[in-house]
Amino acid sequence: MSAPSPVDSHAARASRMRPLPRFIFASRWLQLPLYLGLIVAQAVYVMHFMVELWHLVEAAFGNQTALQALITSIGYKPDVMPTALNETVIMLVVLALIDVVMISNLLIMVIVGGYETFVSRMDLEGHEDQPEWLSHVNASVLKVKLGLSIIGISSIHLLKTFINAGNYTDKVLIAQTVIHLAFLLSALAIAYTDKLMHAAGDKAHH
User: Fold this and answer.
1) End-to-end CA distance of the chain, in Å?
2) What pLDDT score was predicted for residue 108?
3) Is the Cα torsion angle 121, 125, 129, 133 positive or negative in sign?
4) Which is nearest to 102 in space by CA: 40, 181, 49?
5) Interacting residues of 142 by C-beta distance below 8 A, sequence separation 6+
6) Cβ of 109: how many Cβ atoms within 10 Å?
7) What is the CA radius of gyration of the chain?
8) In whole angstroms, what is the distance from residue 102 CA to residue 89 CA?
9) Are 74 and 96 contacting, i.e. CB atoms less than 8 angstroms apart?
10) For 139-177, what is each residue's pLDDT tens digit?
C-alpha cells in the first residue's frame, strides 16, 4: 500500500482542524484588501513617475510650463527663477524619480513578501522571475529588508534637502539628519537582534 502524498496529508490535517481555529486561521485573508490597496498605491506612484519624467523631457526642450511644474514639485526656490533646466533642477528631479522607484521597491517587498509570509504561499519555486530574496523570506528577513529600504529612502530625502539647503532652516536640516540617524540605528538594532536570534536558534539545534 502506497504512502499518502504530502497533499493528501495536508488536506487531512486541515479537515481535522476544529471550527474556531479554522476560522481564526482563515482571518488572515482579511489582509488581502490591504495588499490590493497597496497595488493601487503602486499604480499611483507609476503615474506620478511618468508625469514627472514627461515634464523633465518637455523642460529639456524648453517648455516653460513643464519647467515651472518641476520647480514647484521639487520645492526649489531660487533667488532668480531659472528659464531653462540647470544642473541643480535636473539633480533634484532625478533624485525625486529615484525616490519614487525606491518607495515602489518598498511597496513590492511589502506586497509580495507580506502576502507570502502572512497570507498564503505564492508557489513561485522554480519560476524564472522569482525574486532572489523571496526564496528565503520570513517575517525576520522581511523586517530587515524593509529597514534597509527605509534607510535608502531617507538617504535620498536627506541628499535632496542638502542640495536644496538654501530653502531650509538649520533646524530642519538638523532634524532631518537626526531622523536619518535614528532610522540607521533602528535598522542596525533590528539586524543585530535578528543575528542574535539566529545564533540562539543554531545553538538550540546543536
Assistant:
1) 36
2) 87
3) positive
4) 49
5) 109, 113, 114, 117
6) 19
7) 24
8) 20
9) yes
10) 677 777 788 888 888 888 888 888 888 778 888 889 989
Q: What size, in residues, is the chain? A: 206
Half-sphere exposure of 51 (CA within 13 A, CB side): 10
By C-alpha distance, which of 137, 146, 141, 135 is closest to 197? 141
Dist CA 27 CA 22 (whole Å): 9
Measure the CA–CA gap between 52 and 69, rounded to whole angstroms. Answer: 9
Judged by DSSP in three states, 113 sits in helix
Distance, CA of 145 to CA of 105 (rounded, Å): 11
Determine the residue type at 103.
I
What is residue 111's DSSP assignment? I
pTM: 0.73
C-alpha grid cell, residue 151: 534607510
Q: How far apart are CA 154 and CA 98, in angstroms?
A: 12
pLDDT tens for 103-147 read: 998 898 888 888 888 888 777 776 777 666 666 666 677 777 788
Query: What pLDDT digit, counting tens, does each position of 3-61 carry?
Result: 555 555 555 555 566 788 888 888 888 999 999 999 999 999 999 999 999 999 999 99
Residue with cell 515602489: 104
Give residue 182's identity as a one-letter amino acid code: A
